[in-house]
Amino acid sequence: MANLVYQLVHERISISRGNLAQKILSLKTEHDGIRIKQDLPDLARIHRCPETLPKVKIHFDAAFDKRTFRSASGVVLWGHRDGFLASKTVIHNNVPYPFATEALVGLEAIKLGISLGFQEIQIKGDSRTVIRKCQTTVKDRSAIGAIIRDIQNLSAHFQKINFKHIHRRENMYAYKVANEALESEVISYLAQEDSNRQDLDPEG
């Protein structure tokens, strides 16, 4: 630092404020090199933090029994490289019409994401209408409007949430989970550590 001051004063070197600041910072970095190297791991950890947020895909589908007016929600979570994370089923009674089943299972997908503490999720379903309604913040006045509003309100719990429509063939596992639950009338929650399904393909 003293050499820099000597050059500027005695050798009458002209330098802009921006360049002066850069030179001073460079000299300070060299002087405090050991301390800065010690701080680098913490800085790197801080900057990597947003990139390490859990990013999961939640597939949802429903099954409906028109004789008993019961439905089952099937929700499946897929993580890194489409590895199986968890699945959950819920039985709903007194469902007035099949159209409501897809909205109910969409709500269950949101609730499961919140309960597991995810900050960034992508929710996929094969009901184009429900996905489209979830993608907007406009107040829905249809028959399933109350459920859609619950989904919209709960979406605020996530830092990032994305709703995507997929074809039925891409959602077969979620449908299978829902259909089996409706037939057995049993609700369930299956986590990765309880299953050997880690390598299942969500697109299969």
From TrEMBL:
Residues 60-181 form the RNase H type-1 domain. It comes from the Eukaryota. It holds the Pfam family RVT_3. PANTHER family: BNAC02G40300D PROTEIN, RNASE H TYPE-1 DOMAIN-CONTAINING PROTEIN. This is RNase H type-1 domain-containing protein. It comes from Gossypium arboreum. The lineage of its organism: Eukaryota, Viridiplantae, Streptophyta, Embryophyta, Tracheophyta.
